[in-house]
Amino acid sequence: MGIQHPDARSLTVETAEKLLIGVAGEMTAEDDVRAASKAFYAALNRMLSGDAGSLTDIWVHSPEATTMHPIGDRQVGWDQIKGSFERVARSSTGGHVEITDQLFRVHGDMAYEVGVEHAAFGVSGTQLTVNSRVTNIYFREGDGWKVIHHHGDKSPGISEALDKAEPA
After folding, report:
1. Please, where are the H alpha helices in 54-154?
2. I need a surface site. Which of 58, 63, 67, 163 has the fewest CB within 10 A?
């Protein structure tokens, strides 16, 4: 018992392979972006434990990279983005962040993900809980998909706790 296609008699092995490769190729791009998202959130969790270093591996290092994350303000270019993550890492006392309700779209060498970020962590003794709508944009570079933009709703509680712990 197998799947019967109306043109099964004319379907050659070569045609079947091309169809399967085509389907797999479309799925692979989204799967690769999903993997980049998992790497991004794993790196964010390490940042909440004081280590922002792994974010370096998953971000585009160019002046075009941007972020407007829940800590406030806008960072333009990798150097500003890296500085903002390092600031959070220095002040953070552990926690967890995850994304739910994800939707991915891939178009050529660009992809985006929308969802809801849930975070619970400490900043210099202040416990924070944040639920934020987010958009992450990924760019395909030679060695895979990297984050080129991250946007999350601003959370005044995070900004205030960071400013108290380490003024900008």
Report:
1. 55-58, 78-91
2. 63
pLDDT per residue as tens digits for the range 90-129: 888 889 999 999 999 999 999 999 999 999 988 878 888 8
CB-count exposure of residue 85 (10 Å: 0-12, 13-18, 19+): buried
Q: Both tokens of residue 164?
A: 């108290």
What tokens were used for 150?
A: 């991250």
pTM of structure: 0.79
Helix (H, G, I), strand (E, B) or coil at 116: strand
Q: What is the DSSP string of 104-127?
A: EEEETTEEEEEEEEEEEEEETTEE
Parallel, antiparallel, or unpaired: how do β-strands 75-76 and 66-68 relate? Answer: antiparallel
Rounded CA separation 126/72 (Å): 17
